[in-house]
Amino acid sequence: MEEAVLLNQTTALTYFRLRGLSTNQNVQMAAFAMFLVFYVLTLMGNILIVITIIYDHHLHSPMYFFLSNLSFIDVCHSTVTVPKMLIDTWSEEKLISFDACVTQMFFLHLFACTEIFLLTVMAYDRYVAICKPLQYMTVMNWKVCVLLAVALWTGGTIHSIALTSLTFKLPYCDPHDIDNFFCDVPQVIKLACADTHIIEILIVSNSGLISVVCFVVLVVSYAVILVSLRQQISEGRRKALSTCAAHLTVVTLFLGHCIFIYSRPSTSLPEDKVVSVFFTAVTPLLNPIIYTLRNEDMKNALNKLMGRVKGREKK
Question: Signal peptide location in the record (predicted)?
């Protein structure tokens, strides 16, 4: 009898209800205006970086090849969650279908995991460029860069498939409220009508381990780079330090969220929504700012591109 009731509840569950950032209407309107601006600036900034790198032949190097990948991922990563959040601001129900929820989780983890792998590859690229400059173009040739790009996208896809498959096979029943503004694995599995202890361990050992291991590798890589920079001349050291500082800022902002959310059991904390906002909306906006304001080559390329555009407008 209990199994029949559970089956009926599970079959009837075709959607989830997102609680959003707040139930206060004024707070929701303020959040809508703020995140709409954030999203538009994220699109403009990251797309501009990709166009600039494609346009300027001086930026056709491994570092900027990976940076263009990062900007593309940031556009996609933000698009997975922010448009839905903006739409839900005007909706009282804030519903999302089961299939849409699974799809959102898949792409969220695809782009997030791919970005983690990409940040690790970018750290390796900087290590070779600074610590082994004479071997740089041999080690980081275009064939290697393409293979690394394929590998990190493949790794992100495998990770996302593995993580998402753990959730959509579970039986779900009422209540079906997700205490966030998007679907994510830790919040969704709490709604399952089954024991999820093993799955939570798998999530921590999967997402949490990837985040922690990559963070440790990144910190060690930049520590080695900083030690190596002590032996270089002042101008080269200043430029390399600026690049590494930009990378470390992005790494801390992005991986800080991943470690906070996925390295612990699926329990809700008051800070979760704030951390999620930075993860999905703020960090993709900060990346183009960090990489352009602290990078002379990017600033020069942007000035050249804007000058060319203005010149065409005058004609």
Answer: none
